[in-house]
C-alpha cells in the first residue's frame, strides 16, 4: 500500500512474566514506591474518573517547583519522560541542520529523529565511552541531546563540561535527559538561571519507583515552555491521567523516603561493581542504577544466556557494534545482587 511509514522501532527490554526471577534488565527501581504513594492509591475515589484529568497539573507542578527551586511556569508534565522528549523533538528541532547526540546513548533519540524526519548526526563517544565536550562546540547543528548520566554507559559528565556545551550553542536548544540524576552526579538545574536554551527532562520511572505509572516532566525557560504547551495542546492536552498525577504528587512529597532508598541502590551498585572487578570484569564507572560491564573469561552473549537459564534477566544489546561485548545490569536489592555475584562465580 502507498503512503505507509517504514521505521525501525525502539526495542525495549524484555518483560518476562515468570515468577521467582531476578529482573534486572530495564533499570526499574529495586524498592517499592513510597508508602505515601500506596496510601494515595488506596484513598483514590474512583468516582472522579468520570471527569477529565487536569490540563495544567498545577498541584504536581507546584510540588516539583518547590523541590527543584524553580517556578511553576518552568515545568511541563507528560506521560513519562518519553512523551516529554518526543514533544521536545517536535517543538525544538525544526531546522535543516542535524541535531547531535552520542552514538551510544538512549536508543529512542534516533527513532524519534527518523519518525519526525529530523536530520541527525550520531557523535562518537571516546574509546572509554566518554562524551567529548569539544565534539559539540563550533559545529553546525539544529540542537543537541545528551543523557547525563548517560545510558547505557552510566557515565556522568560534570556540570562545568555540560555548561561549555550549552554556552557554545545558545542559538539552539540543548536537551539534558536526567532520568538517572538522583542516583549520582550534578544536575544541570543551576544552568536554567543563566541560559534560555537548556531543557531538562526527568522521569518518575527510575528514582521514584513508578515505572508502571508513566509520568515524566520537563524543566526549562518560560519561552521554551510556551512552545511546548502549544504543541502539546495541538495533539494531546490531557496527557496525564488523574490517578497518575495524584500518585506522582504523593511521591514528590516524600523526598526523604526516596533519598534513602536511592542511596542504598547507589551503595549496592558500588559494591556490585567492585565484586565484578574482582572477577576480572571491566566495569564502567556508573552514577546510575545500573552498570555496563564487559565480562572476563566468557562472552557477553554466553553470560547473558547462562544468567537467563538461572532466571536472572539482564540486558544484552546483541549486534550493536560497540556494545556487543557488554551487558547492562540494573541494580536490584543487595540480596539479589549477592545472588547474581554467586551465580556468575559459578561460571569460573
Helix-strand layout with pairing:
Layout: E1 22-23, H1 35-43, H2 58-68, E2 75-78, H3 81-92, E3 99-102, H4 108-115, E4 120-123, E5 144-147, H5 159-167, E6 174-177, E7 198-203, E8 216-219, H6 222-232, H7 242-252, H8 255-278, E9 282-283, E10 290-294, H9 300-309, E11 312-313, E12 315-316, E13 327-330, H10 334-345
Parallel strand pairs: 1-11, 3-4, 5-6, 6-7
Antiparallel strand pairs: 2-8, 7-8, 9-10, 10-13, 12-13
The gist of it:
The protein is of the alpha/beta class.
Task: Please characterize this protein's 3D structure.
The protein has helices spanning 35-43, 58-68, 81-92, 108-115, 159-167, 222-232, 242-252, 255-278, 300-309, 334-345, and strands spanning 22-23, 75-78, 99-102, 120-123, 144-147, 174-177, 198-203, 216-219, 282-283, 290-294, 312-313, 315-316, 327-330. The chain is globular and about 55 Å long. The model has no long low-confidence stretch (mean pLDDT 95). Strand 5 (144-147), helix 5 (159-167) and strand 6 form a beta-alpha-beta unit. The strands form four sheets. The protein has a five-stranded mixed beta sheet with strand order 2-8-7-6-5, with helices on both faces. With 348 residues, the chain is an alpha/beta fold. Helix 1 packs antiparallel against helix 7, helix 2 packs parallel to helix 7 (242-252) and helix 8 packs parallel to helix 10. Residues 20-344 form the Aminotransferase class I/classII large domain.
Descriptive key words:
single chain, 4-stranded antiparallel sheet, alpha/beta, 34% helix, Aspartate Aminotransferase, domain 1, Aspartate Aminotransferase, domain 2, 5-stranded mixed sheet, 10 helices, 348 residues
Amino acid at each position: 500500500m502507498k503512503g505507509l511509514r517504514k521505521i525501525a522501532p525502539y526495542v525495549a527490554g524484555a518483560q518476562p512474566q515468570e515468577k521467582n526471577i531476578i529482573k534486572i534488565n530495564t533499570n526499574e527501581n529495586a524498592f517499592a514506591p513510597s508508602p505515601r504513594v500506596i496510601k494515595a492509591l488506596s484513598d483514590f475515589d474512583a468516582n472522579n474518573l468520570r471527569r477529565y484529568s487536569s490540563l495544567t497539573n498545577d498541584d504536581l507542578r507546584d510540588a516539583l517547583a518547590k523541590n527543584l527551586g524553580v517556578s511553576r511556569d518552568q515545568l511541563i508534565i507528560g506521560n513519562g519522560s518519553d512523551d516529554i522528549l518526543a514533544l521536545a523533538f517536535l517543538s525544538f528541532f525544526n531546522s535543516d541542520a542535524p541535531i547531535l547526540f552520542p552514538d551510544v546513548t538512549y536508543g529512542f533519540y534516533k527513532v524519534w529523529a527518523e519518525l519526525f524526519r529530523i536530520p541527525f548526526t550520531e557523535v562518537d563517544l571516546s574509546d572509554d565511552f566518554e562524551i567529548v565536550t569539544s565534539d559539540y562546540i563550533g559545529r553546525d547543528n539544529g540542537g543537541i541531546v545528551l543523557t547525563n548520566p548517560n545510558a547505557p554507559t552510566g557515565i556522568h559528565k560534570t556540570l562545568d563540561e555540560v555548561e561549555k556545551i550549552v554556552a557554545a550553542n545558545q542559538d539552539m536548544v540543548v536537551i539534558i535527559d536526567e532520568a538517572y540524576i538522583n542516583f549520582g552526579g550534578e544536575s544541570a538545574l543551576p544552568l536554567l538561571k543563566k541560559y534560555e536554551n537548556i531543557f531538562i527532562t526527568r522521569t518518575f520511572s527510575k528514582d521514584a519507583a513508578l515505572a508502571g505509572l508513566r509520568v515524566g516532566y520537563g524543566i526549562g525557560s518560560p519561552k521554551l515552555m510556551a512552545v511546548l504547551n502549544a504543541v502539546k495542546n495541538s495533539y494531546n492536552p490531557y496527557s496525564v491521567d488523574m490517578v497518575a498525577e495524584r500518585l506522582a504528587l504523593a511521591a514528590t512529597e516524600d523526598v526523604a523516603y526516596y533519598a534513602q532508598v536511592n542511596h542504598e541502590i547507589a551503595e549496592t551498585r558500588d559494591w556490585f561493581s567492585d565484586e565484578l572487578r574482582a572477577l576480572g570484569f571491566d566495569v564502567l564507572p556508573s552514577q546510575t542504577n545500573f552498570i555496563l560491564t564487559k565480562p572476563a573469561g566468557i562472552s557477553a552473549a554466553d553470560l547473558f544466556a547462562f544468567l537467563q537459564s538461572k532466571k536472572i534477566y539482564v540486558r544484552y544489546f546483541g549486534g550493536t557494534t560497540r556494545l556487543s561485548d557488554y551487558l547492562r545490569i540494573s541494580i536490584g536489592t543487595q540480596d539479589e545482587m549477592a545472588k547474581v555475584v554467586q551465580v556468575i562465580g559459578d561460571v569460573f
